[in-house]
Amino acid sequence: MTADTELELFRAQVNCAAVLENLGRPWKLDPRESTRRALKYRRDEGEVLIITHEGRGWWDPQSTAKGDVFTLVQHLDPSLNFGHVRQVLRRFVGIAPRHTPAERRRGGEGDTRSVAERWAARPRLRPGCRAFVYLTEERRLPRTVLDVAASQDAVRDGAYGSAWFAHRDGGQVTHVEIRGPKFKGSLRGGDKTLFRFRAGRSEVSRLVITEAPIDALSVAAREGIRSDTLYAATGGGMGPRTIEALAAACAALTSIPGAVVESAVDANRAGDRYAERHAEVAREAGLPFVRMRPPEGLDWNEVLKREAGA
Fold it and tell me: Can you give the CATH number for the domain in which 38 is found?
């Protein structure tokens, strides 16, 4: 076998997910946050990698790192040169990953409706509903912000006192994040794009990017819901469709004088990595970038609650 033939064999028959599961300290699949096109793997606190392209590619949502199975091995162990990487990959030819829940879900297990159907079945956000009470009393979001969110159908009244936040693509709900007094997660089977919130129909010249929808609403509340701003949330880690949505939002700003992209992610190491990725997307669109960083260790909802005396 020639060197080139072996490299093609690795590309065709080594699955990045299998490498994660078996090389070094094993990574474990997060089934709740995974989709058919993006499998989210976790290891230690804050360590996340997303496997894409049916196991042929990978992405680090907390940095700019991405690539194929060769760069994955070097990402996991930077001390390895390319010759060592080839030795490692020989062990993984033809090995299938043990966990592919987006492909293996058994019929009749849980709610079989689509994310959009489950969203449509929930009541709209309204004063007095349990989600409204949670967001105003525990999260200290003002009614003015929630009224606008309700009018845009960006938030709905979820189960067990939770609030549901919609990610949309072309108006279609593709993913739902859930936050409540005792729960943090999302509906299974979704595909993250962006949570979006804005006031009115004025021309947008500013994009503010946060991690969580509640943080997007918190920034909007502190600013009085600026009419020139699209407040967006990625839901934490950014998969391919989220990056595509951010790039499209940036592209829409390129012809607007004074347009700017601002990253309002958390003030911690993960947040700083997200901000670096946001800066890269803005730079690729030719837009100025600003890091809107809360005090160390906080997110913008925590800032809002402190200001409200919570």
Answer: 3.90.580.10
Is the residue at 265 inside a domain? yes
Entry pTM:
0.70
Residue type, 172: Q
Q: What pLDDT is recorded for position 189?
A: 81
- Flag whether 146 is in a domain: yes
**Are 71 and 154 members of one domain?**
no
Shared domain check, 59 and 157 = no
Q: Which parts of the chain register pLDDT below 50?
A: 100-109
Report the pLDDT value the prediction gives residue 75, as an integer from 0 to 100: 87
Considering 70, 104, 138, which residue would you say is the last residue of a domain? 104
pLDDT of residue 105: 40
Are both 99 and 123 inside the same structural domain?
A: no
